Amino acid sequence: MPLMVNRHEEIAFELAEASSVMCIGALDTGKTTMARRLIETALAQNRSVGYVDSDIGNSSLGPPACVSLRVFRRSADLPRQFDSVSEPDALHFVGGISPERLVLQQVTATAALVEQARSEADMVVMDTSPMIAGVVGETLKYHKMELCRPEAVVALQRGGELEPVIGMIRRFFGGNVHTAPVEPEVRPSSPDERMGRRAERIMAAFAPPLDKWRVRTTVFAPTLPSGLDPSRLDGLLVGVHDTDGRCQGLGRLEVDDGNLKVLTNRGEGMQGLRLGSLRLDLGRGDVRPVNLRELMFGL
Questions:
Q1: Does 198 reside within a domain?
Q2: Can you give the pLDDT at residue 205?
Q3: 226 — phi, psi (to 5°)?
């Protein structure tokens, strides 16, 4: 067996009793596989695990544009693939698939679900987005470390691409960082494959039965400006929230005979809608980014 495979198993064993672990790495480095190995090892020692999936573009648990939480209490609860989990235990709507303009939203969402996971499980395992480089990537990881305070970090890299982030974590947080190379069987996915998986996750979030609910302009966050033409919101992705502010699922805004409506399978208990920064083509499951300031104020 290759040494690098042993290293991954070794890390999972070393961290089986940790309170919280964050997995970081670039695109297609096996973060989710590592997270699963950590979960399996902890469950084998009769520890419950809260898995927080904060990869909003290529989610493995909940729908894209959301951070998701699932608590596993025994090995039998863990499916062969995270995709086969029917529904996460909790969602936090971020509203986009890239953290480039949504650092605050993504960090807040991740920290909120990590806090919830800590209250419900013995161990928390965090999967993160592949954005690791540049100002945005380092800022995102810095603030996730700052608010989530994982006991340990697992860093997966092909070369030295994570060294700036690893150095930052050790310098500012005294981080217990475990590094490992990418496993040889990890196959990089093509853009089309990633888009296809994302479309599948979106379509799953809009599974029938779907209903259209007429909505007032006062239920949105951020607040809609006075006199806004509703047609400008047509096709916009929204988070459907209950009276406690919890995200229940996704919706799509539609204009019907001049009335603004939301298409969703989460209408019962709906109290508010959070505007996303994506326009959704539900026929194909495609999304494209929009600038909310430009959309609402023409800036």
A1: no
A2: 93
A3: -60, 135
Residue 7 structural domain: 3-190
**Mean pLDDT over all residues of the chain?**
92
Task: Report residue 127 as tokens.
Answer: 């999967």
pLDDT score at 257: 84
pLDDT of 138: 94
Cα–Cα–Cα angle for 276, 280, 283, rounded to 5 degrees = 160
Report d(CA 93, CA 273) in Å as an integer: 10
pLDDT tens-digit profile of 5-43?
Answer: 478 999 999 999 999 999 999 999 999 999 999 999 999
* Percentage of the chain exceeding pLDDT 70: 96
CATH number where 169 lies: 3.40.50.300
pLDDT at 298: 67
Pair (141, 171) in one structural domain: yes
- Asked if residue 283 lies in contact with residue 107, where contact means CB atoms within 8 angstroms, the answer is no
- Length reported for the chain: 299
